[in-house]
Amino acid sequence: MKTTRLALLALSAATAAFVTGCASNNAKYVDSQGPNTIVSLNSINVQDWNTAADKLVSSLLASGVLDRAPELPSIMAISRIRNNTQQQVDTDSLTKKIRIALNQTGKVVTTTTMGPDGKVEDAMAADAGAMGAFMAGQKQVTKLPYYTLSGKLLEDRVKAGTTRQVTYTFQLSLTTVKDGLALWEGEEQITKQGERSSVGW
């Protein structure tokens, strides 16, 4: 009986310690663009995507290229960003942020339903458009984009002693579909340095 009571007390103490440990994990919210996010040398963090997208879009808008299109808002097809780094990354994190920012300007309408070669990327959107044209008794007219936005993601790693450094380079090019001329090109580099993952820049 005494042994059973001691076992129950030990089990209760272990349970209380476990609950207390889970409750004190100090989890908290931080600003995704603030200085307290975790920085990793081995991956592109959320603040890297945010910084690159913001600066590249600002550079594109400051160039005034989008204001010189023959029709506003103009249609822009965004290609996938080529990943030339050593890691597998979801480049949609960059293109989505760029699409949102550009659509909000009212200068362009970005699309993923059709590429510059006229191929459909979003089958559901294409089917809905075809059905709408059929119901209206009209022939569906495909309108090609005026611009295409393409890009590349590069990575450079160096090491000196115990210090490691990685530089991620985000490149974008804005091209006109009719003649293939690059009207604007932008590049943003983000360099991180340290001996291991740390908090802050």
Description:
By secondary structure, this protein is α/β, with parallel strands linked by helices. The protein has one domain: Rossmann fold, CATH 3.40.50. The chain is 33% helix and 30% strand. It contains 4 helices and 7 strands, in the order αβαβαβαββββ. The strands form 2 sheets. A 5-stranded mixed sheet has the order 3-2-4-5-6, with helices on one face. Helix 3 (92-105) links the parallel strand 2 (74-84) and strand 3. It is elongated.
CATH class category = Alpha Beta
The average pLDDT is: 79
Helix amount: 25-40%
The count of domains is 1
For the biggest sheet, the summary is: 5 strands, mixed
Number of helices: 4
Q: Which structural class best describes the helix and strand composition?
A: alpha/beta
Topology:
Blueprint: H1 2-23, E1 38-39, H2 46-63, E2 74-84, H3 92-105, E3 108-111, H4 123-135, E4 147-160, E5 163-176, E6 182-194, E7 198-199
Parallel strand pairs: 2-3, 2-4
Antiparallel strand pairs: 1-7, 4-5, 5-6
Outline of the structure:
Helix content is 33%, strand content 30%.
Give structural attributes:
201 residues; 7 strands; alpha/beta; 33% helix; 4 helices; two-stranded antiparallel sheet; Rossmann fold; five-stranded mixed β-sheet
